[in-house]
Amino acid sequence: MTKIFVSSMLLLVSTFLSAQSPELNCYMPDPDATIRSHNVDFKKLDLDIKFTPEDGKLEGVAVYLFNAIQVKVDSVFLDGPGITIQNITLNKQATRFKTDSAGTTVFFNPPLVRNQDYILQIQYDATPKRGIYFVGWNNAKTDDPNDPTIIRKQIWTQGQGVDNRYWIPSYDGLNDKLITSLNITFDKNYTVVSNGALKNATENSNGTKTWKYEMPHPHALYLIMLAIGKYEYLDYTSKNGMISRQYYYPGTKHYAEHTYQYSAEMMDFLVDETNTTYPWTTYANVPVQEFLYGAMENTTATIFSDFFYQDERAFPDKNYVDINAHELTHQWFGDYITAWSGSSHWLQESFATYYAKKFRQKISGDDYYHWKRREEMNTAFDADS
Q: What pTM, to 2 d.p., does this model score?
């Protein structure tokens, strides 16, 4: 008891001295690392969306279930730069709103009551320049899988860090997770991939189909994804029964077999290493053209740049194995456990980098593992110069 009391007093004194004497602080203050505050808790998003891809345009209806987490809430701000709001209702009653360059402020009269649930419906349209990308719709070249200059018709998203706000009016912050459900209406001849499980796909009379994807658990809004293109897929089943669905371009199955090798093994490896079952119900990889980065770990579905999509001959020089393991690790570190602000992304990236290297050590041996560590160390030193 005495030791506990003395330790507590030392901690109290050191905290007081640090507050009074900035030179005694042992951390670097970072104003950008503050957690964004919010006055409501968004619990669920049901999003209906359709596209005019040749114009880079979308139309959507976003329905939020949320509750107030302050005593009285007379307004809420939704991120949405460039989004045109058609109308907004609260519990099916029209409510006043004001739009500026950053988004939309919704006003409530009377104010919302703390801990009470509400339904907010937003009808909108947008022609976004960020967050969602329309590739090849005005200059598609060929569907020949053997043509190396092929330009495919695709739609794909990239939400990290705060770009999903350009196509979804939302609280686009990391510290408010919600369950999402997306209903996407598009040409029935295409494949549509989104977060979670495909609950149904209904054909419409106008040649379109509506795909309904649902997430079982909450996740951060920046992890919402969408990929539309022409795809087929391979399924890989791990020892624990988890199925990884790996999409590939039609006519290129031999690419997929090399690109996605070890998919089942890395799922088993991560479950064993983390001692935690895979936290979601589905997982997929989707290659796309002109992607902004190497890959992005959206919840349950990673989008990756198709320059990693390689056949047997190219595989030894550039392959997807390390990136595949890295993004899969993010399903635990980043998607299941998420930083409260973007300034802490480095931590979840560190876990993903570590486990990807350990998986490579498992399948490729110690020499490969240590050589890769050396390369990354040199890269870090070079970055400083």
A: 0.89
